[in-house]
Design goal:
The chain is built from 15 helices and 17 strands. 35% of the residues lie in helices and 19% in strands. It is an alpha/beta fold and 384 residues long.
């Protein structure tokens, strides 16, 4: 094992040979769109549309217009385009390409996207939630060693299939890659995480308590201790209301970080709050200092792009106690390979699993790490 965390067996292989043979997509989303002769219409508004339009401009790709779901069309403009209804676009043009510019996770809406893709080609560009750059085939080849190393470290065939599909989706923007690898929340909790009735659960990015609610559901309300960290003021208020006077639950309004410090933090609606140079300064804590040497058995990180720093801040706890880990892999381009390799570097005893819940684009793609001595009776998730 090198100091980078990449197994030596993953290094030095021919890109056209063994390395990255699971990547089937050769042409990136943006090159596909650049060669497209039909009009290209964006479906949706918001931050995602802004990022996609910026990427399209950098490639010289012209957007013919923008449309939204009927209930959101009020005769207004977005990014210099009049926002239209789909029926209006179809009346103007029979054959066109749709670029989906917002996230979809509700089953009825996903079904709607599937039906829409039967009428018009549907492309879902992958743009990072945090940070810059685009996830292209060339980007994969630049990071071939890291990507191949993660693939080889994964503990079961399901994880390898999920990983390959996620990467192929990120390159191509084809949503069928995501729809082919959906795992239910129940399957993940019951077959991968396997919570006990005596967990010490540390929830980084606790939001309104939704993950705590899931834990209590699958342990029938039994646990040893819960520590919840949420930096956003409005979310923290909802979290505190949910927790109430529940025993052995402690909430902290702070950011998760590698050390105890203060950070600028931008509060936004819902889950999109994040560390930002334009934000208001708030406290930040590391898990190791927060727990002060006390054991952790289950650790979740969904911290909007600062998972790497939060992992370093929990490294002593991870190395010493081998808590089961649940870590978001979709905020930054590099998360999909950097975070699994970092976990492996901190604690090589872990078995690594990747699962994807119903979401378009590739959000809710998470890493689950379980040490050999804490997972069932030495079984893989495929065998359980």
């Amino acid at each position: 094992m090198g100091i980078s965390g990449i197994p030596h067996s993953a290094k030095g292989k021919d890109l056209d040979g063994v390395m990255l043979e699971f990547l089937k997509e050769k042409v990136s989303t943006w090159d596909r769109l650049k060669e497209e002769q039909r009009p290209i219409y964006l479906y949706g508004m918001g931050d995602g549309a802004v990022r996609i339009l910026s990427a399209m401009r950098s490639y010289g790709i012209h957007a013919a217009g923008i449309f939204a779901s009927d209930e959101f069309v009020r005769g207004h403009d977005f990014a210099g385009y009049p926002v239209k209804k789909l029926s209006e676009i179809e009346a103007e043009c029979e054959d066109f390409v749709i670029v989906l510019a917002f996230a979809v996770c509700a089953p009825p809406m996903v079904d709607r996207m599937v039906e829409l893709s039967k009428k018009h080609p549907l492309i879902v560009p992958d743009v990072p939630v945090v940070g810059g750059g685009l996830f292209t085939r060339e980007y994969c080849e630049e990071h071939a060693e890291e990507i191949q190393a993660v693939y080889q470290l994964l503990a079961d065939e399901r994880s390898r299939r999920v990983y390959a599909n996620i990467l192929n989706f990120k390159i191509s923007g084809k949503p069928e890659y995501l729809l082919d690898i959906v795992d239910s929340r129940e399957a993940i909790w019951n077959r991968v995480i396997c919570p006990t009735n005596n967990e010490t659960y540390v929830d980084l990015g606790a939001y309104n308590g939704d993950s705590i609610r899931e834990l209590l559901e699958y342990t029938r309300g039994k646990y040893h201790r819960i520590v919840a960290v949420e930096p956003d003021r409005k979310n923290y208020k909802k979290l505190s209301k949910f927790v109430g006077d529940t025993p052995s639950v402690k909430c902290y309004q702070c950011a998760a970080w590698c050390v105890d410090t203060e950070l600028p933090f931008a509060s936004k609606a819902g889950r999109q709050s994040s560390v930002s140079p334009d934000g208001t300064v708030i406290p930040a804590r590391s898990v190791d200092n927060l727990m002060a040497g006390h054991p952790v058995t289950l650790l979740k990180m969904d911290v909007e792009g600062t998972e790497r720093e939060a992992l370093w801040g929990a490294s002593r706890s991870i190395a010493r106690f081998s808590p089961k880990l649940m870590i978001s892999l979709y905020h930054r381009n590099e998360d999909i390979f950097e975070l699994p390799l970092l976990v492996h570097k901190i604690n090589p005893k872990y078995k690594l699993y990747i699962r994807h819940q119903l979401y378009i684009p590739a959000w809710e793609t998470n890493l689950y790490a379980v040490a050999d001595d804490t997972y069932g009776v030495g079984k893989t998730a495929d065998e359980t």
